Amino acid sequence: MHLRKIPHSELKLGEQLPQGNNIKSSKFYFDEHFICDGNVKICRTKESGKYYQFIMWVRGENKHFRKSLRETDLQTAIKKGQEFYIKLMGNIYRGEKVFSITMQELVDVLILDMTKVIWDHKPVKF
After folding, report:
1. What is the spatial distance between Cα 10 and Cα 92, in angstroms, rounded to a whole number?
2. What range defines the domain where residue 78 resides?
3. Do the Cβ atoms of 70 and 36 come closer than 8 Å?
């Protein structure tokens, strides 16, 4: 049975991807467990072997965040994952970025600042 892959952009606010939506997921990830109302996946991969991974979709930046929990015990990994989720969501609600800015974003900010300097006729201080 072939499942249609649903892009994250088609999801409504608060709606979760159906489990098993990504065909690649079942081949790459194993021992999957969803926590925090399905917002976080705790799993192991073929690369990580016995260690559990924390995987979460960051909506504002449209990227998956993945981090090794460095745990082999499932219950400890779930507890660590819940704590990390709370910390990460706190940072997001404070307006902090999870991922660093791209080079294009940096260039855009610098061009905007330089344009303000030129139009305001203020000397540039280095």
Report:
1. 22
2. 8-97
3. no
